[in-house]
Amino acid sequence: MLNRQKNLARFRDEEFDLAVIGAGINGAAVARDAAMRGLSVALIDRGDFAGATSSRSSKLIHGGFRYLPQGQFKLVYAALRERERLRHLTAPHLVHPIQFLFPVYRGRGFNRFTMAMGLTLYDMLAGMPFNEWHSTLNAAEVRETEPALSRDGLTGGAMYFDAWADDARVTFENVLDADLHGAAVANYTAVENFSMTDGKIASAGLRDLLGGASFELRAAKFLNAAGPWVDEIRRMDDPLSKPCVRLTKGVHLVFARTVLPVRESIVLADDRGRIVFVMPHDRYVLVGTTDTDYPGDPAGVRTQPDDIEYLLAVLAESLPGIKLKNADVAASFAGLRALVRAEKGAAAPSAVPREEVILESSSGLITVAGGKFTTHREIAQKLVDLVMKRLGRPAGICPTLATPFPGARPLGADDEPGGGAAMRSIPAESAEIIKVRYGTRAPIVARIAARRPELAEPLSRGCPAIAAEVVHAVGSEMAHSVGDFLIRRTSLSWRSPLEAETAAPAVARIMAAELGWDRAREDAEVASFTHEQQSRRAIG
Predict the structure, then answer these.
(1) Is 421 or 249 the better-scoring residue by pLDDT?
(2) I need a labelling partner for 421 at 20 to 30 A (CA). Which of 60, 244, 323, 464 fits?
(3) What are the angstrom distances between the C-alpha of 79 and each of 29, 56, 379, 420?
(4) Pairing state between β 154-165 and 135-138
(5) φ/ψ bin of 80: left (φ > 0), alpha (ψ from -120 to 50), beta (otherwise)
(6) Is there a contact between 123 and 133 (Cβ–Cβ < 8 Å)?
(7) Contact, 77 vs 209, CB < 8 A?
């Protein structure tokens, strides 16, 4: 159980082996790996866990088929192996197969031969079982599979498997596992400065952004995993440090399936060969992404009218019978990628390599930025190996290679497989909702609902979340706002955007009771989330 106040006290009182700044996917994975190897670890973020890029991805756990023509075979191989590890061993409750239809059009991107060769290599690198290998289709078979696709220039296509996941929950389970292995973790805790001893960083000045207190965090090593803000942290260490990352923006749109009634998940290409995914999830369809340079404040990244115009144009070209307009956007979200900054030249954003950048300053600050979400575990392994070396300790065998996430491990000897008595005591639909989100840890939420039956009900009509989850999120997952719960702990803001908006008052009411909010704070939380959600669809 995550206990923020206890962990803040630990920050003040203990000296750690490693302090990780940033609880996106890279920082969370490093904290998990380091704690599992026996290091004393502190993990902090000035926002919420997965509060930026790591909750605004395409939700794909994939090798990146489009990187093969760029010659990035090592990256694709590593990503595919990590995909299979997550899907079958470490996070099968969160990572699920998704089958894509990839149509081929004359003069646009791949031809049928290169598509077939590329997907054969893709499946071989992944070590896919034969029953999950891709299949090639002729034009008639593509039209039969997805009638909405344009027939103009269609030459054929293919069906192939990748995987998808709730990116925020994957990040959070890394945080949770770090905590379970003894790490001290806290969100809404900002680094304000560093203090040096003999030219090395000895401590960081922190501010508790919820309580307002300031204090020192002492550690032998500091690791900067602040995502789009890594250069800001580096300048605290060395004001003269040059930027190491190039920020590019990725925008996704969400539509109701009633207005975008596709049968399949589809890979579309624009006239420059850029990839756009169309992915149905329950009652909604996720479409993305863009890839454009972003020169502004990372905190201000937003979906802009030209982002929507671009994605609607790609959809209109490939799905001409489906007439979408701005008003059909149910929700949107924008995130930033931290890409390697090239010394010379300026390639198009989509052509920039997706490998991570790892730097080490003269003061000992280790910085990591970029990399694919899918390869977070491997990136963390490299970093913790480096930290162990700097601390003079043997790296040993990396424990994350085979250790399942908390939601994929047995909860305890007293819990029956599949949920036990608590799971059986709540409605079957509610039990299924929490099983999908929490895996083997679902009984923890079910016990709350069993003790208070009114909490076993959905938060609003048709909402795929129950009231007990709010109590759990506040008490055990460090949720401090309605947005924390609806955007990151459950991802309802994109999975079920309209239902999330109607659920906001119930979420605020429960959080008010748990956290002691007054009515003004409760109303402000609802207003804040509702405004953000409405702004994500009323753009332009």
Answers:
(1) 249
(2) 464
(3) 15, 19, 11, 36
(4) antiparallel
(5) alpha
(6) yes
(7) no
Report how far residue 116's alpha carbon sits from residue 15's, in angstroms, rounded to the nearest whole number: 55
State the Cα–Cα distance between residues 25 and 22, nearest whole angstrom: 9
CA dihedral sign, ordered 289, 295, 300, 304: negative
The whole-angstrom separation of Cα 197 and Cα 121 is 52
Name every residue whose Cβ is closer than 8 Å to that of residue 215 and which is 6 or more positions away in sequence: 8, 11, 12, 205, 206, 208
Long-range pairs, 358-363, Cβ under 8 A, ≥24: 358/382, 358/383, 358/386, 359/234, 359/244, 360/386, 361/234, 361/237, 361/238, 361/241, 362/199, 362/238, 363/194, 363/196, 363/199, 363/200, 363/201, 363/237, 363/238
> Strand 366-370 and strand 356-360: pairing?
antiparallel
Give burial (CB, 10 Å; 0-12/13-18/19+) of 125: middle
**Using DSSP, how many helices (H) and how many strands (E) does the chain show?**
17, 18
pLDDT tens track for 468-487:
999 999 999 999 999 999 99
pLDDT in tens, 344-375: 545 666 556 667 889 999 999 999 998 999 99
DSSP code, position 108: B
Structure tokens at 184: 């001290």
Mean pLDDT confidence for 211-234: 97
Sign of CA dihedral 266, 270, 275, 277: negative
Mean pLDDT of 11-31: 98
- What is the distance, to the nearest Å, from the Cα of residue 325 to the centroid of all Cα atoms in its chain? 28
Nearest to 303 by CA among 346, 264, 336, 340: 336
- Mention every residue, 6+ apart, whose C-beta is less than 8 A from residue 394: 388
How much is the pLDDT for 297? 94
Amino acid symbol at 237: D
- Integer-rounded Cα radius of gyration of the chain: 23
What is the distance between the alpha carbons of residues 112 and 397, in angstroms, rounded to a whole number?
A: 43
**How many alpha carbons fall within 13 Å on the CB side of residue 258?**
2
To the nearest 10°, the Cα dihedral for 254, 308, 164, 26?
Answer: -120
Tens of pLDDT, residue by residue over 173-201, are 999 999 999 999 999 999 999 999 999 99
- 178 closest CA partner among 391, 400, 354, 350: 400
**Does residue 289 have a cis peptide bond before it, meaning omega lies within 30 degrees of 0?**
yes
Q: Of 259, 261, 227, which Cα lies nearest the Cα of 537?
A: 259
First to last CA, the chain: 43
**Does the reported pTM lie above 0.85?**
yes
Q: What is the SS3 assignment for 155-175?
A: EEEEEEEEEEECHHHHHHHHH
d(CA 170, CA 25): 8
